[in-house]
Amino acid sequence: MSEHLLTVKDLKTYFFTASGVSKAVDGVSFDLEKGQTMGIVGESGSGKSVTASSIIRLLPPKTGRIVDGEINFEGKDIIKLNKKDLLNFRGKDIAVIFQDPMTSLDPVFKIGNQMVEMICAHQDVSKEEARKVAVEALRKVGIPQPEKRMESYPYELSGGMCQRVIIAMAVCCKPKMIIADEPTTALDVTVQAQVLELLQELQDEMDTSILLITHNLGVVWKMCDTVMVMYAGKTVEYADTKTLYSTPMHPYTWGLLDSMPKLSDKVKGELNTIPGVPPDLRLTGKCCNFYNRCPYAQEICEKEVPPLVELEPGHLVACHRQTKDKKLVRGEVNQDE
Predict the structure, then answer these.
(1) Which position among 99, 116, 148, 185 has the lowest Cβ density within 10 Å, counted as fewest Cβ atoms?
(2) Which distant-in-sequence residues (6+ apart) come within 8 Å of 156 by Cβ?
(3) Cβ(12)–Cβ(27) under 8 Å?
(4) Helix, strand or coil, per DSSP, at residue 13
(5) How far is it, in rounded angstroms, from Cα 282 to Cα 80?
């Protein structure tokens, strides 16, 4: 039976700025099981990366703040960790792979020096032992001549090679969980496939859980066991991957899936889009955030925030028009009740 490695309950992370309070994450809840991969999808600005940053408490100190909620990692309350425990937690228990490999590494230090420093910070080993661990990690992620690459600077490597170095650094301390924040965004298609395959191999080898943040729904299908769809700081749908793709229930999820190009399409035409733009996060929290873009919206959608309800076992949806007694049909003509 699967066990919860990470449990997030009603997480609220706000940014306090001169122009107002931006509700970047406004009541997100989910569980990540040991050894599984969960995907977080949604448009830019939906709160995906802020959710990940909140988990490792890596927020702008002057403006970003977790105002409510719980983040439990193996029963440990992350929000209550002091600075020393938090430094040990990052890298050792949870590692992060950021989306831009070229800016994730310090350009003025050699690859080997950066890896050795990170390993020594989280493991009680000498620099010689740390160097051996680093070389082995580079070899494991498929970098040729790892001893030579230890002496290279980041700008001497390609984007794909730098991403492999980042992954090697992430797995050096054998973390229980990896947060992969759009790890293939800056890479070409061939390298993307190699990186995803590498992550799966490392996960199988180390039984590591992965929280994958991405715009690419094809990557989600290939990699993830469960999926959480976010919109304007809130969870709008949560289910296992097969269920979400076969029977999606939220209008926003329908829009995302419909906007994907399909190889089976014989006639070339314009791609489907979701009309309108996401709301101002300083003004959300009083209604359904998606109502102004939703073709199925009704009067209640403009007045009340829809709760996240479990309509089927393990399938949660936040939509006023999706209830256990009455289901909204995809593509039906909107009629006011």
Answers:
(1) 148
(2) none
(3) yes
(4) strand
(5) 27
Per residue in 307-321, pLDDT (tens digit) is: 999 999 999 999 999
Is this prediction's pTM over 0.85?
A: yes
Token pair 């009067």: residue: 299
Complete DSSP assignment for 115-182: HHHHHHHHS---HHHHHHHHHHHHHHTT-SSHHHHTT--GGGS-HHHHHHHHHHHHHTT--SEEEEES
How many Cβ atoms sit within 10 Å of the Cβ of residue 231? 28
Q: At what angle do helices 111-122 and 127-140 cross, to 10 degrees?
A: 110
Q: Is there a contact between 217 and 256 (Cβ–Cβ < 8 Å)?
A: yes
- List residues bridging with 28 in a β-sheet: 11
Neighbours of 209 (CB within 10 A): 23
Q: Give me 29's structure tokens.
A: 């809840």
More confident position, 252 or 188: 252
How confident is residue 177, by pLDDT bands cut at 50, 70 and 90? very high
Q: Spell out the residues 6+ positions from residue 145 whose beta carbon is closer than 8 angstroms to its own.
A: none
pLDDT in tens, 81-98: 988 888 888 878 898 888
For residue 177, give both structure tokens.
């969980």
Distances (CA, A) of 88 to 28, 56, 81: 25, 11, 10
SS3 per-residue string spanning 212-267 = EECCCHHHHHHHCCEEEEEECCEEEEEEEHHHHHHCCCCHHHHHHHHCCCCCCCCC
Tokens 């700025």 appear where? 17
Residue ranges with strand state E in 1-132: 4-17, 20-33, 37-41, 64-73, 76-77, 94-97
CA distance 131 to 120: 9
Q: What are the phi and psi torsion angles at 75 (to 5°)? A: 80, 0
Cα–Cα distance list, 326 to 213, 315, 319, 321 (Å) = 32, 15, 12, 8
